[in-house]
Every structure is written in structure tokens, then in C-alpha cells.
Amino acid sequence: MAGHSKFKNIMYRKGAQDAKRSKMFSKLSKEITVAAKMGDPNPDTNPRLRLAVQNARAQSMPNDNIKRAIAKSQGGDAETYDEMRYEGFGVGGIGLIVEALTDNKNRTASEVRSAFTKHGGNLGETGSVSFMFDQVGSFVYDVDKGDEEKMLEVAIEAGADECISDEFSHEFFCPADDFAAVKDALEAELGEAKSAKMIWKPQNLIEVDVDVASNLMKLIDILEDNDDVQNVYSNMDVSDEVAESLAS
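Given the sequence above, the corresponding C-alpha cells read:
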């Protein structure tokens, strides 16, 4: 999640990822179902479905789960989900964008609003936060693919315009219109990415202290635990010291 990935990585290292694996599979399944229903249920002829399946496999989601999610999209009684985006502010004026797939817009809006209110934030109008973000392509590879300098060279040659590295991963970014071309070029050089998707990338980050970061992470955790919420993005900057303090 842009804006707090460093803290999330530290928490994952401490084992939090395993506790949320079933929740993650549920969200991946929902994206697969939506992609299959919107287009052809064959990933070879449906780019969105192909990408959803790729991301699911990168997270070690079993093939049986993937097949069930595709099958769930077929037939007249297949569930229908609406794609929703909510924008709001947390404490410290931090902007958050929440993407959801829901079969009940009123329920999801109420639950998202309640989470913001509980943690001292508030929902805004559409566009009140997104103007501070850019929608870009994001590709994540594990660090064993190479060092930062080498990966930056690969990124530029593939058509990406930025590479951010930490001790866990390399993340490439590219303009939204170049997503498909950059994805193909990166895969030709490095294989399939651990994650490949469109994200909301903050134009500028706002550094937060321990108290603000703690409050915001509680809000983000509640949002991410919501079955309807697919992604949460923020423009907060968590320093190494603050991240380690919160993770200890």
C-alpha cells in the first residue's frame, strides 16, 4: 500500500501476513470473479482476468480456488459487484483512498465511514484526495532478482520511469497508459511479477510521528480487514525509527 509499505513489510516479517492469508485469498477471488464476469472467463483472451490470476498465483493461491472463482462468475445467478472508491482524511491531514468491490454499496459506505470516524478522520467527496495522487502501474519483484542499480537499468529499458528498492523488494512504476507494454517487457527480462496492478501513488509524502502513525495504521488495518475493501492507499511517510517502534 503506497505510503505505508515499509511498515507493512516489517509487520509481515514478524508473521502478520500469515494471519491474513485467508482474507487475502478472499479478496483475490473476488477480483477474479469480477474480471471473469466482465469479460471472457478464459484468461488467455481476458487481460484483466489474466492479471488477476497472475497476482493470485504470485501469492500462492491454490489453483482450485482460482478455478472456483472463475466458475462463480458464470450463470444467471452469479454475484454482481460494484467497483467503488472512497476518499477521506485521517488524523494529521493524511489522505487515504479506499478501493472496494461490493454487492451492497450502502453497507460498504457505512462501514468505511464508521472506520474513519472512529479514528478521528472523515470521508470526503470524490476527488477531494485523489488529486494528490497519480494512478500508475506498479510491479513488485523480490530482492533476489538483483541489486537496486541493476534493477533500475532493467526498469528504464522496459519503459518504467522509477524503481524503489528496500530490503524486501523492488517496485517499478510506469504511466498508466504504458502498463501493458511495461508489464510484457519486465516479464521478458525478469519473469512474472509478485504483484502487477494499477495503484494510486502519492505525489508527496507527509512524515508522521509515532502517535499519528499508530492511529492511521489502526484505521488502515480495519479498512483492510473489511471483506469489501480491496486496496487502501495513503500519503503518509513512516520513518524507519517510527516503523520499528510500532512493530516492536
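Confidence is low (pLDDT under 50) at residues 9-15. Try to locate this feature in the C-alpha cell string yourself.
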